[in-house]
Amino acid sequence: MDRRTRRAICLFDVDGTITESRQPIDPAVRTYLVDELKGKAAIGLVSGSDVAKITEQLGGPEHVAKFDYVFAENGLVAFKDGEEFDRRTIVDYLGEEKLQTFINYALGYMSDVRLPVKRGNFVEFRVGLINICPVGRSCSKAERDHFEQYDKVHNVRKKFIESIKENLPDIGLTYSVGGQISFDCFPVGWDKRYCLRYVEDEFKGNIHFFGDKTSAGGNDHEIFNDPRVSGHTVTDPEDTVSQLNDLFF
Q: Which one of 4, 13, 80, 216 is most buried, counting C-beta atoms within 10 A?
């Protein structure tokens, strides 16, 4: 169906919303979105992850291209109908001196943190943000799940963010917790609301966002509460499909 005949757009977080955290999408959910929902509304993805991770979770570039819009890294890397059309970088915003000050502080902080396990890849540099992972992104699925439960008790990520804010108050970044093991660091205003500039005119008054981290501190919170958006909190992909059925079918 021509996008011009669809007056609404549904924007989806990825982890915890249309997939389990960092897991491949259930093919049934993918089919539902691109074969059924797309006939009722335009569809888009909004993720803090880079496009490579989104592509991996969706099952390949041919599936990603079926979404009308894909906003990787909160929209700093933007795709329409499978083609990239805009890009912004955190290096341009911060400059090398501030960037290294921030990375050095984060690495120093993590060198003093004791956790049940530590693995590799603690700082992941992306186009529009820096992802900080105290346990290390190369942890196993079992270690990922264990850290998530440990973090709920010990607030590892929350304390880390508080320390950055206290020690680097003028760095020009803001922070949000997403997924199970990490948090995103990005320029003020470069949260998931950034992507709305690309769709607000075309779908004014009819922008729906679905996410699981919509409470304060979560990486879906800002876009969920934006006045341009109808926000929907979901618990998992099954709940997402259920809410879509109620809204559009």
A: 13
